[in-house]
Amino acid sequence: MFRLKSYDDRLQGYTAADVSPHLAFGTFNNSSRGRGKGSRGRGRGNYSTRGRGFQQQFLSLSSQSSGERPTCQICGKRGHPAIQCWHRFDESYQYSEAAAAAFSALHITDVTDDGAWVPDSAATAHITNNGQRLQQSQPYYGNDTIMASDGNFLPITHIGSASLPSTSGNLPLKDVLVCPDIAKSLLSVSKLTKDYPCSFTFDANGVLVKDKATSKVLTMGSSTSDGLYKLENPKFQMFYSTRQVKASDAVWHMRLGHPNPQVLQLLSLSKAIKINKSTNAACESCRLGKSSRLPFSSSEFIASRPLERVHCDLWGPAPVSSVQGFQYYVIFIDNLSRFSWFYPLKRKSDFCSIFIKFQSSVENLLQTKIGTFQSDGGGEFISQRFFKQLQDSGIQRYMSCPHTPQQNGMAERKHRQLTEMGLTLMFQSKTPQKYWVEAFFTSNFLSNLLPTIALATKISPYEALFGKVPNYSALRTFGCACFPTLRDYARTKFDP
Predict the structure, then answer these.
(1) Which pTM does this prediction carry?
(2) Between 254 and 166, whose confidence is greater?
(3) CB 442 within 8 A of CB 344
(4) Is 120 a catalytic residue?
């Protein structure tokens, strides 16, 4: 009986309208999906009436064209008559006055938009009710509409592009639909993630939009009391000048270019600056920009016998090879007497062989063993062959730390003495540079004969080591003319 009455109503509708029901097929096209009034309803593609004939669509068209918005007597929703209700043939559906009252209160014009974008994972397009938000727009003449959760069909007036403010600029929003009747501006999550490589993270506190490449937060939003997520515009921090204002000593320290603390104290006493708080905090920037090495204290070691400790260092390469082809030299210094031995080298790899000869010579000369060998960490001093030689001879090894030549200061100072004296001898005698080995050997010989303040008694290293006063009568000026007697080597009696 119920179905017969429904069929009769449809026939009467066709007669009253006096039009062909087939004209209703060209009335509606696909509608964009979206959420109206900030609710969770989804729009549908076609205005499907689930196979209930054609008159429902025609009646909906006539009601919208007349401007009336009827209320359904079956479900209580506004926007469609009872003959168009989905629940019309559902006998198990129960009408609820409370639900009807709730839906009837959801008038689109009763809710205002605060301008914030609401991210919507169900929307397939960006939708806004404010055409002024579009940067480029044009009128929309299509037949697509937006269906809200309460059954209303919302028209689209314009389409264009907008932008979403972020911390790194503005994110472009393409194909934004303008719907004046929608309550909230909906941001399509699927469309934004396709147009821009970003990701959305939703939790109880809010929503984050991050750049996939850099993981940087582009924009963020909070969760409202009604369960909506709203994207907020990035907050800009305001900075102001604090010049001529009291500040802490740390702030004045940075203002004045990181001066010494005594400078700050002097300026504060003279009332030139006003310090309201003394932190006495260590400045990390000063540690990084002004750090310097602490002074090395003098060694307190005093040898009790010759060769108890031998200092060694290698010099070179020389800018000019000597006449014999030498490019390096090595010196050995006795800690007790400051006496030094000079050995020229052609290659650094010759050092171990020279040391074996030196060890055999001085130990036989002085009748004592080398106790400790001190040097830097050069490659010639850390070779396996040299290390084995020290182990086999029972010699203890001291090595200075990297980039700290001060720990081997005795050998470094001897280098300076030999090079300065040797170059001076060459300049005085106008000797070619290829004779630098002879000049340096002479300077080492003379330094062993000269008194030194390094020894407490201010005697010469030669006297301290051998117990004899050196004889200076045999010395001649370096580079002076020499006339040797060659009579015994002459080939004829007429040769000079």
Answers:
(1) 0.48
(2) 254
(3) no
(4) yes
